[in-house]
Amino acid sequence: MTFWRRRKPKWPPGGPRSDPFGEGRLREVPEPDEEPAGRDPESAIFEPWESDEFTQPEGSDAGEYELEPEEEEEEDRPGAFRGVFFGRPARGAPDTEAAQPHVVSTILSKKPGKDAARAVALTLGILAVVSALYWWGPPGFAAALPASGETVFERGETWRLVTAIAAHADAIHLLSNAVFLAWLIYLSYGAFGPSLYPWSAVPLSAVALAVTLEGYPPNIRVVGASGMLYLLAGAWLTLYVLVERRLSVAKRIVRVVGFFLVVLVPTSIRPEVSYRAHGIGLFFGICLGLAYFLARRDTIRAGERWEWD
Known about the structure:
The chain is built from ten helices and five strands. With 309 residues, the protein is mainly alpha-helical. The protein has two domains: 7-68, no CATH class; 114-308, Rhomboid-like fold, CATH 1.20.1540.10. The chain has a three-stranded antiparallel beta sheet, with no helix packed on it. Strands 3-4 form a two-stranded antiparallel sheet. Helix 6 packs across helix 7 (226-243).
């Protein structure tokens, strides 16, 4: 686009000028195909003129230009952001499918920090110490660790609901639980902090153990962290389906079902294993995951990162 600046004409010496009241301001300019009367066309001296909009000497080689309006700057829609933004998609986003925002990261995407590693180390340390005391400690102390219907409900020794989770029958029992429990604690603590584990998972594991003991004879003793392991697994898998929106719902469900069949379903049945505790722990874990998500939904969604295609 080309605009001509308005400028004052250079009047020839002695030429007429406009008076303060505007008389004689405009002069008649002949059409281009007419020769100005009384002037030599070859001399290229023409009467200057002045207009209200633009000023240029007549006969200049500037040519005629069609003025184009300035392009208006594109304004962003209210509430919409281009590129990357966080939280829920804002209002005013384009309705076209190609411009729909999609989640590129969630709170599950970040790598767990050192606090998660410390939580794992502390938990495994407690399990190892309590289990060692159960194996080699004083007889009276070791007998106070397992939980049974008789000791918990009849005698009121409710602390056994916690000590029984930490004690294990033997080293193989401890190692088999410690591997998966460490992985679940590392992920849960790294993504959700101590609010999920230990402050929610440990008390609920004690409640799940109490429900388990209700279905056993009063003299059956239960030890081991299998119930808490399945509880954490149920909570984590439930939260994974609800939080990990980088994938479609179908893909999330397929992954969860695959993990459950490969890791959590036993390949053999052993009489000394409390599968009732596993099932009840898994049920309580699913309930914990749903309740935790509903209670902290806004915080979880605020940790999402979005991009537009």
